[in-house]
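Final report, Chapter 2: Outcomes

The project's central promise was a pipeline that accepts a single protein chain and returns its three-dimensional structure in a standardized token representation, suitable for archiving and comparison. That pipeline is now operational. To close this chapter, we reproduce one record exactly as it appears in the project archive, with the input sequence first and the structure output second.
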Amino acid sequence: MEETRNVLQLATFKSLAILDELGRGTSTFDGYSIAHSVLNYLTDNIKCRCLFSTHYHMLLDDFRDKKGIATYHMAYQANEKGDKVTFLYKFKRGECPLSFGINVARMAGIKQKILDRANIKSIAFNHNL
């Protein structure tokens, strides 16, 4: 948060601000609220160029049609089932159509039994939105 404070205090319209996963380590709603407020301040007040990486997909809804904002995501290749993903480390214009948290957990070596349960919970959660 200290780095974010510095960006907000020192950035000018000529700056390039890079913020990665702002709000991480807080509650979901606090983190989302902080990320939303900071992004809004950067675009409306400072008006600098910004790379803003986030896992708060709700921000897409809030800023999708805002002038001066464009969405990009990391390009990937996935098999038909979507359970094998290769990240290509290239920016691609547009919103990422899928979340790959469970795939990343698989790549980190989390047990399949745990991943299966996480997938069930993810599907149930997404159907309730």
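Archive annotation: Strands lie at 16-20, 49-53, 72-78, 85-93.
This record, like all others produced under the grant, will remain available to the consortium after the project formally closes.
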